[in-house]
Design goal:
484 residues; alpha/beta; TIM Barrel; eight-stranded parallel barrel; six-stranded antiparallel β-sheet; globular; binds 2-acetamido-2-deoxy-beta-D-glucopyranose
Length: 484
């Protein structure tokens, strides 16, 4: 099966997944998917005018749902079969004088209407339909923890909050002051006096019923396939199982923390957790030629043992809209390619943040929210090809082995600069020796003398008489091996 080094396999697999879309998508359905994170305001303009977008003032750059529809081919041709889009509800209007405006979608004001900057309710339905007709899934970002206010909210502000328009539906005002006190994290407020994030009283039955009814309606009205839940750790854990059930689709939550024990407990309350501890270990391991590979190894072993369903309970990423781009600090393209490989070869659901494939290098928020249209969506650059190969290799491995998304990977670190993920028929070697380094690695589990292909270079090779491969790299590049 040499197909995965050609684009044809992608079309073929995209066609196959058409049959998955009609029913509500479960965690199992999502495990074989690959997610492209779209920042709606920064992905595509309706008219493709290529208007400049300065990230610094934090204003709307006017990307739309229609723009996304027009560029789905760009996403699907890289092998992604799901997108995660920004929150869609109506946000605070106007400028906060300091933190810009609500182009990111996280400043909820009214959950009963759609943010007009992104389009209409019908435009969102059209996006959902366009995705489904390509066999792709739609994941919606939802903010449940809080509503937003310019300055501290007063009765007038709260009366504009639609569904939750009474002061007693919110926790009394206090800003979070102690991250070691979970009650403080859950009941005090995020934000500050410029933009306050009024914390919903998620102990209140009115609030619980309001959210559960809302999410059932949203999933049904827009035929959503999954949810990304913002600030999951700021809402008490027992709130989530009923919310997840009301949604009826896969949900993955954001637990921003560098602590696997803390993050993993959430997998007992919701389908999936964004793998932040893994992100910290991953970025550290490939940060330089002296990055710490044993930290990545140790963290991934903890992930496998602590989450409810091991690493299958997680979604893995190297970049997102809240963290500096990897290339804001790392320029060695060998390190970059190795780091990008990780999320696509582990048990986790891979997520790629828009612009990584274009080599974007913005630092902290807001610099990391560059408009994708400024790249002209070119498909000729090296990282775009790398992402396409990674998706293709993953899909081929899933297609070749029915236990790929249920039997846990085996991760080992053959040397201090290399890490090996074994998920037969895929073996993935990554290293942080960098572009001027070289490494050797041995992996096994194949048939004696079996014909294999290294999917990133499309070079063929053979297993030895013991079913092992002896791999030597002279440029530090990763290697992802499979059957020919
Ligand atoms: C976005 O649209 C608003 C309202 O039409 C306009 O004022 C603004 O200049 C646009 N932004 C960009 C970056 O074109
Ligand atoms: C309530 O706060 C808003 C700003 O969010 C302000 O414009 C308004 O004047 C305030 N109303 C009262 C009654 O204080
Ligand atoms: C934890 O935070 C809550 C909410 O702010 C507060 O009431 C409580 O006293 C704090 N507990 C401790 C031990 O500091
Ligand atoms: C994350 O946690 C690990 C383990 O405690 C630690 O070694 C590492 O330095 C932390 N990383 C960051 C970025 O704080
Ligand atoms: C690398 O990470 C491991 C595992 O967390 C830790 O024990 C070790 O001290 C770290 N090494 C360096 C050089 O920081
Ligand atoms: C399929 O995966 C299982 C579990 O990892 C493994 O034991 C088996 O060898 C794999 N089969 C092939 C043909 O790679």
């Amino acid at each position: 099966m040499h197909l995965f080094c050609t684009p044809s396999i992608l079309k073929c697999l995209a066609f196959l997944s058409l049959f998955n879309v009609a029913l509500a998508a479960s965690a199992t359905d999502w495990l074989s998917r690959s997610i492209y994170q779209v920042l709606t305001d920064r992905f595509a303009l309706t008219d493709d005018a290529g208007t400049p977008c300065d990230t610094a003032p934090q204003l709307y750059c006017n990307g739309t749902f229609k723009g996304i529809v027009n560029h789905l081919e760009y996403i699907q041709a890289m092998g992604f079969d799901a997108i995660w889009i920004s929150p869609v509800v109506t946000n605070l209007e106007g400028n906060s004088a300091g933190e810009g405006d609500a182009y990111h979608g996280y400043w909820t004001q009214d959950i009963t209407t759609i943010n007009k900057h992104f389009g209409t309710s019908d435009d969102l339905k059209a996006l959902s339909k366009a995705l489904h007709s390509r066999g792709m899934y739609l994941m919606l970002d939802v903010v449940i923890n809080h509503f937003a206010s310019f300055g501290l909210p007063n009765d007038t502000t709260i009366s504009a909050y639609g569904t939750f328009n009474a002061p007693d539906l919110f926790h009394p005002q206090c800003f979070i002051s102690d991250y070691n006190n979970q009650t403080n994290v859950e009941q005090c407020w995020l934000g500050d006096t410029t933009v306050a994030l009024a914390d919903l009283n998620t102990e209140s039955q009115t609030v619980i019923d309001g959210w559960n009814k809302w999410i059932t309606g949203m999933v049904s009205e827009y035929s959503l396939d999954g949810l990304r839940i913002d600030t999951l750790k700021h809402v008490r854990k027992p709130f989530w199982p009923a919310f997840q059930q009301a949604a009826g689709v896969y949900a993955v939550g954001e637990v921003l923390i560098n602590d696997t024990s803390y993050a993993s407990d959430y997998s007992n309350f919701i389908d999936g957790v964004l793998d932040y501890p893994g992100y910290y270990a991953l970025t550290q391991a490939f940060s330089s030629t002296s990055g710490n590979m044993s930290l990545l190894l140790e963290t991934s072993h903890q992930t496998q043992s602590l989450y409810k369903n091991g690493a299958f309970s997680t979604a893995a990423f190297l970049e997102n809209h809240d963290q500096p781009r990897f290339q804001s600090t790392v320029h060695d393209q060998s390190l970059v390619k190795n780091a990008m490989t990780w999320s696509f070869v582990t048990d986790a659901i891979p997520i790629l943040y828009q612009g990584q494939e274009q080599g974007y290098g913005g630092g902290n928020v807001p610099a990391n929210r560059e408009a994708l249209w400024l790249s002209a969506y070119v498909t000729s650059n090296t990282l775009h090809g790398h992402v396409t190969s990674l998706n293709s290799a993953r899909k081929a491995a899933i297609a070749a082995n029915s236990s790929y998304t249920s039997v846990p990977m085996v991760v080992s670190s053959p040397s201090e600069s290399t890490i090996l993920v074994s998920k037969l028929p895929m073996l993935a070697f990554m290293s942080n020796v960098g572009a001027f380094g070289s490494y050797n690695a041995v992996g096994g589990g194949y048939q004696p003398n079996e014909a294999l292909v290294e999917t990133l270079s499309c070079k063929t090779l053979n297993a030895d008489g013991n079913g092992n491969i002896n791999f030597a790299s002279t440029d530090g590049l990763p290697m992802v091996c499979e059957f020919l």
